[in-house]
Structures are given as structure tokens and as C-alpha cells.
Write a structure and sequence with these properties.
Elements lengths: L36 H25 L9 H21 L3 H22 L6 H18 L19 H16 L2 H14 L16
Helix pairs in contact: 1-2, 1-5, 1-6, 2-3, 3-4, 4-6
Length: about 210
């Protein structure tokens, strides 16, 4: 029917204009029974945070000179951030996982950036990027799951699809907020600060 048969008990807090609205009136197409929607959202957050963090990191590294920003490097950071964000629900479920994901993503970003700019890589710069990436990943924090989740095998008659949907909604509420975005942005900014004296990441030779 595309609507609830009873008014939603949370009222309009679900974001609809009607307490009877369900899935924007199109539940056939607007459904996510296995939760793929969550990595898409966290991937989008990672893309924006990665791009913004690269710009901020470059400005920190070059003393605030906007003429030295490499937009190519920023877009590479956004792409790697998208991949890392999409992987977060599966990898960053512990502090160790979040740290390792940050280190791996930042090292990959460094290698791809150097290759794209026709520049060589060094062990010192790779180690710096792994270290700052680990720090940024730890700061951005865990992908969190609800402390109490709905059972998909409830003996009380809760539909399994509704239980999965409620768990997905809970995950989104925990992980897709302004606060979480800014934590990712700050973590990405930390990750993108260049090693002093390396001179990398600049489009006009300044450090």
C-alpha cells in the first residue's frame, strides 16, 4: 500500500510529512533488506571527509597558501576516503580495525598520489603516511553497532525484514551524524599533513 495502516508512533521524527507515510510511498523499490545502504552512506561521508581533509592537510603543510592546493591530490584522497568509508562497517568495528584501516588507506592514498604525479616514493614518507593514517583512523573512531539489536528470529512475531530494517536504521543513527562526519574530517586532516621537509603534496613546490 505504501503506507502504514496505523500512525507511526514516533510521529514526524522519521522525516516524513505524514505519520502514515512509509518508504516514500514506494516500498517495492525503496527497501534495503540486507543493509547495503549503510556502506553507501559511510562511503559518501568518507569521500567528502577525505577530500576536505586533503585540502586542510595541504594548507597546514604549505602555510595556508591556497595557490599550492593540488585538487588532483584532493580528488584522489576523496576516492580513497570513499573506499575506506565503505569498508568501515566491516573493518572498523574495533579500535585496532579502525587504526589499521586508517593506516592502510592513507598509505594507499600516498602511493596512488605519488604515481599520479609522476613522483617517486620513499620509505620515510610511506611510514609517515601510515603513522598519520593510523592516528587519523583512531581519531575518527569505530563504526558502531547498536548495543541491543532486534532479533531476526524473534518469537514475538517481529517480522525478520522489519528487524533488519530497524537494525540498519539504528546503525545509521549511530554512525551517520554531523559529529561523526566532523570526526572523520579531522581524522582525514591529520592523515593528510605532509612529513616536514618532504615537499610532497604541493602543486607549486612549497612545503
Amino acid at each position: 500500500m505504501g503506507r502504514y495502516i496505523e500512525a507511526d508512533p514516533i510521529g514526524l521524527y522519521g522525516g516524513s510529512f505524514s505519520t502514515y507515510a512509509y518508504a516514500n510511498g514506494n516500498p517495492v523499490n525503496n527497501n534495503d533488506p540486507s543493509g547495503e545502504f549503510v556502506p553507501l552512506i559511510t562511503g559518501a561521508i568518507g569521500a567528502v571527509a577525505g577530500f576536505g581533509g586533503s585540502v586542510i592537510g595541504q594548507l597546514i603543510s604549505n602555510g595556508g597558501n591556497t595557490n599550492c592546493i593540488s585538487w588532483k591530490n584532493a580528488f584522489i584522497a576523496g576516492g580513497v576516503g570513499a573506499a575506506a568509508g565503505a569498508a568501515a562497517p566491516f573493518v572498523a568495528t574495533t579500535w585496532l580495525g579502525a587504526t589499521v584501516l586508517g593506516a592502510g588507506a592513507n598509505t594507499a592514498q600516498y602511493e596512488i598520489t605519488q604515481f599520479a604525479n609522476g613522483q617517486s616514493t620513499t620509505a620515510a614518507d610511506a611510514a609517515w603516511n601510515a603513522g598519520t593514517g593510523a592516528l587519523g583512523g583512531a581519531f575518527a573512531g569505530l563504526f558502531r553497532y547498536p548495543s541491543i539489536s532486534y532479533s531476526t528470529n524473534s518469537p514475538w512475531g517481529l517480522n525478520a525484514a522489519l528487524a533488519r530494517g530497524a537494525n540498519v536504521d539504528s546503525q545509521l543513527a549511530l554512525n551517520v551524524t554531523v559529529g561523526n562526519f566532523f570526526r572523520n574530517l579531522v581524522g582525514s586532516s591529520v592523515s593528510n599533513v605532509n612529513r616536514p621537509g618532504s615537499g610532497s603534496g604541493s602543486s607549486c613546490g612549497c612545503n
